[in-house]
Structure formats: structure tokens, C-alpha cells
Specification:
The complex is a heterodimer of chains A (343) and B (99). By secondary structure, chain A is α+β, with helices and mostly antiparallel strands. Chain A has helices at residues 16-25, 39-49, 69-79, 86-96, 103-106, 122-126, 141-157, 192-195, 224-236, 251-260, 264-274, 279-284; strands spanning 10-13, 56-60, 65-68, 114-120, 179-181, 204-210, 214-217, 245-249, 276-278, 300-302, 310-314, 322-327, 335-338. In chain A, strand 2 and strand 3 form a beta hairpin. The longest helix of chain A is centred in the middle third of the chain and has 17 residues, at 141-157. Chain B is α/β, with parallel strands linked by helices and 99 residues long. The chains are: A alpha+beta (343), B alpha/beta (99).
Amino acid sequence: MTSPKLTSLKHRFSDWGQAQDYYLESKLTDGLPIVPPSEDRVRAMLEFAGLAPDQVVGVETIRNKHITAEKVAVNSVMAGCRPEYFPVVVSAVAACCDRSFNLHASSTSTNGVTVLVLVSGGYAHTIGMNSSTGVMGPSNQANATIGRAVNLVKTNFYGSVPQDMDNSTFGHPGKYSFCFAENLDASNWPSLATDKGFDGESSTVTVVAAYSPLQVSVFGGKDPTSFLASVAHAMIGLGPSISEVLVVLSPEVMQYVNEAGWSRQQVQEFLWGKAQLPARDWIAWRRVEHPETFTDKDQLVGCVADPSRITVLSAGGAAGVYIDIIGSWGNSRTVTRKIEIRS
Amino acid sequence: MTNLEKMLVALDPRDESDHGPALLATRPPTLNGKTLGLLSNNKPHSEELLQMIAGIMNESYNIKNTVEYNKGSHQWPANSEALKEFASKCDVAIHATAE
């Protein structure tokens, strides 16, 4: 059986160094060296996922971009992915194409958010993702390269090139890579995948148009109403113009929540209720873009519109009593997709 | 093995589909007597900025009149039906952002 034809333009190089120079000088990398995307490596990605090269994995309608499996595979090889990571990248790219994610505006805004890729379910363990100590940091190949691959698709294929279409004022370290897995061992709750409505066997990827993470130290007792109050206080710092918040509980904090018997919904509702201020306060602190839209200045205005916009999960190492909060940009909604794994 | 066979072959990661060149709208030979459209993206001060530009253009050209449309959000493209209606009411348009 002959392999399906790959149609990408082929570049020929005398050696590895010349290939690196070409991709770097052509601004086809994030500034770091890449794995030259040979045909064999690209085919290995596609074969693992059972995808034809010309299969469209996502269509972004604002820029009319039809993203093919071949191009996602090329960028995944460049990022350093192993073939078993490829289904995660494909699902993440598909999720980014959901109109509610608003990839076009979120990836070009001066706000400079990145695409956070959050993996939930057993497949994260299967491919060796880190959900524990240093979960948002370096050293794990799957975490590092899956997030990098999504960013390379965004820049190389979609065209949100830094200093060009991507006009971020400050940028974001997560524009290199921002990917981690939910710590399923730490929580009594259903996985995020299950909570999002997928069956218990499914693994999912959730994409977030993410600002920088803000770490909150937890002081005081183990009563959730005490330590979640400090999280709500930090959420107010994100302002009233964000779309959603991701709240990441360290395993020790999650243990307190487990012991108190709080559900995910209880945490969401508590945080939402606490992270509110009267409109006049937001206006006084100059946190509102259009203050004229508030006719009742005593109206309570939340950090986000409703509790469902607060996604709560556990991740991170056993030591440390911290909570991370990550706001999402503008009107972008987090989007969750099942990871399709060929059996 | 020939030198060609020894070469490293790597694929291009960019979108190679041909959407054709972006097309510019036909430019009128003069702005005199034309209706000027002002398209705001709803950023703070964008309408003020557009009014300032309209004022400058009125000093240089005999602009017939202006029509205004605020697309409601800088985060989304304009509603296509509303944009068509706006376009039908003006000869030329300026789109501005501001803070």
C-alpha cells in the first residue's frame, strides 16, 4: 500500500545546521531550534492518529483557514512531539477553531494572551504528561512539546506571527508553550473531562486564551471559606472584563476541599459570590472600559459573569499550599474537545 | 548514494493554500461631493478620533455628509448585514481604533 502524498513544499539542506538556519531566519520557529520535519517523521504522526494528510482538522472562519492534519503534523514534528502526542495537538487545534474561542482576536491582541492546553483523563498518564511537581514548568517532553506545537501551528500556519500579526505589548512566556495535565489522583471530584460532559473513558483537551498565571499563597485554616476568600480577592485583581477564570488547586489545598466535602460547584459558586464589587468601585479603580454602561452604580459586578465561567481543578506537586488563577482574554470562551485515539 | 540523496529534506509548516490576493475597493477619483462613512470598533475614544479625522477631511474636501456606524466590539468582526447596510450608505469609509 502506498502512503498518501504529502503536499507541503519540500526544502533541501546539506546538513542539520543549515536546516536550523533556514527555519530560524524564515521566522518559522519561536526562536528555539526545531526538529527538521522530515517526511518520515510527519508520516509517523499521521499514521499514529489515523489521519490522512489532507484531512481538515479545523476551520477558523474569520481568517478562513482550513487547517490540515499534514500541517499540524509538520508543526508537531518541529516542536519535538512524539507521535503519541499528536492526537492531543490535533484536538487542541480543533478546539482553537471553535468560533467561541475567537482565535483570530485573542492571538493578535495587544493583550498578549497565549493558548493554554489543559489535558484531562487517562491519556495524559498514557503519554507521560506531568500533572504533579512543577506542572507548569519545564522538563516534561509531552507538556513542553504539545503546547509548543499548538503555538507553532498558530504562528506558522494561522499567521499570528510575533511582531507582525501578533502585536502583543509584552508577549507571554506561555507563547513558547503552556500545557499541563489535571492531577486526577489528588481530587475526589470527577475529572474535568467528565465534568464537561464526556464519558468516563474519554480524555479531553481544553484550550484557554490565557493570561499569565497568578499564584496565591493560602494562609490560615483548612476551612474552604477561609482560603477561597483569598483566591476571590486575587480574582478581583483580574478585573471585571475577563471572560473566564481557571483556578488550579495544589494537591494539599485539594485535600482540604476533599475533607470538607465541597463539590466543584460549591467552589465555583463561593468564588463567584465573593469576587464581586459594586460597579462604582470598579469604576473608581479604573477597571472598566465603558463606565457609562452601568446605570446602577451600586449594582454588584462579578469578576466573571456567572459561576460556570470558573473552571476548578487540581494540579501540581504534593508540597505547597498554593492556588493558581489564570484569567482568559476578552470574550474568548474555553473550549473542550475529546482526544480521538485510534484503537 | 548521490549528493542529492544525502540531503536533508524537510517540509514547510506554512499555509500554502492559494486564497488569491486581498482586493482593494475601487478608489473614487475625488472625495469632493462624497459621503464619508465612519466605522468605529467601540474602543474608548474611537468615535472622537473618527470625528477629528472627519473634521480634517472636511477642511480639505467638499465632503457631502457623514454616516456613522459602531460595530459594537473590537473583538469581533462587524455584523455582515449591518456592514452591507453601512456600505450602501457611503462612498468611502474610514475604520479607526482608539483607547
